[in-house]
Predict the structure.
Amino acid sequence: MKRFLSWLIEKQPVDDVSNEPFYYHNAYADYQTAKKLILEKDLKVKDNESALLLLDKAINGGVRPAYGDRAFMLQLFNFDYDAISDFDKAISFDPEDSNLFFGRGLSKMKLCDFDGAVTDLSTAVRLVKIECERNNKLSLEAKRLGITEPIILYSVCKKTLKHQ
């Protein structure tokens, strides 16, 4: 699962920052550095903490995609309330990203908000069915990692919750 989440972070679209103010360029550089730290094979706790600090700086500088990445990082530290807050913000910027709903659903599940988790996982299943470049890449990477389709992963989580 961690490899799959790392892939999601790596495959975020690259923004064109050429027309942005200077402070945004610095924040975007912090964001790129954080992503590199997250994607290193042998992550150490110090690297995770450094990545979180860089994501904080990126968010403060206006880099919107950093909210989703920070939310997934916060999940690794079991800060699920904070992760949900970041997922909420990320979803407000990108309401068609199935992975954000999936991630938020996982955090809600860990906090025993099963109704909220089922709702988020249902939304993730609905969104991942939409034919678009992001979902096509997601499906290819899922297959490479041995998951037949992301929709299966989302659906299994949703069915498991409905039986609790």
Summary: The chain has two domains: 1-10+20-94, 100-164. Residues 1-10+20-94 form a domain with the Serine Threonine Protein Phosphatase 5, Tetratricopeptide repeat fold (CATH 1.25.40). The radius of gyration is 16 Å. Residues 22-39 form the longest helix (18 residues).
